[in-house]
Request: fold
Amino acid sequence: MTRRLPLHCGLQRFSALEIKFFRKYLGKIVLVVSYFTAPLKFSAMKSKQLVAYCLMAGLTIGLVALVGLFTPRKGEGNATATCAYQVCMARFGYHSMLIIPAENRLYSWRGRFSGVDQTIQYVGVGWGERTWYVDPPSSSVAQLIQGTRALLLPNASIIKIQRYSDFPEHYQTECIGVTPNHYLQLIAFIQQTFQTDANNQPILVATDKELNATFYEAKGTYSLFNNSNHWTARGLQVAGADTPLWAAHAAATMHVLKPTCAEPYSTSLQANKITKQQLTNLN
Reply:
């Protein structure tokens, strides 16, 4: 049985680079807004001036967000890696998740979660808003209401473990090869996402037989500034990949990510126990 990894990868909402980016550009937004509003008295502001002010502020914020979405943040890199250890990003619409082998020589998910048996070859791991993930709305109106709430308010989060007997070809996916150490760091990052009970076990919330998925209590609060795509990007960053400065949309991470593996790696290899040296390298 594979040993549980030490947890050392934080779930911070923003990295130091992200904070520096927003401070730099949001400061410019404040200057622009101040320039246009200083001569005006809000009590007597004309409607046209108010509209112009709102448009200018909106365009400026939108431009800054766009720059952040498609500006890459360099990862540590995996120059020496082969495709023996792979991490894949899957995009489905606005959202994203990570897809990893159910088992390889470094780590095995088999037996750790219900239903991850020998028939399962890949595991999809996604972090998201609790209500939407477990019971997604079906109507357009409900989607609009719940989507607005999920983005504008802080919400409880949940982590989904989805099981696949074959690689899920119906998603848009990109795969990268990573070093053994980066792979283990990603496993530690995923493990730290789970809330655990008194016995240090993940807390099961719900099961979806149709999706072949289970949902567990997760750490972190979901919002526009900390959504499922931010979590996916942080995982990829831990694995050494390039990611956007602001990973609010799955398309941004998919655009920045540089795939190095054309096909998913076979998971038929028997998993070995992680060595003490590999565990030491994580600290």
The beta strands are 72-73, 86-92, 95-101, 122-129, 155-164, 172-177, 204-208, 213-222, 243-244.
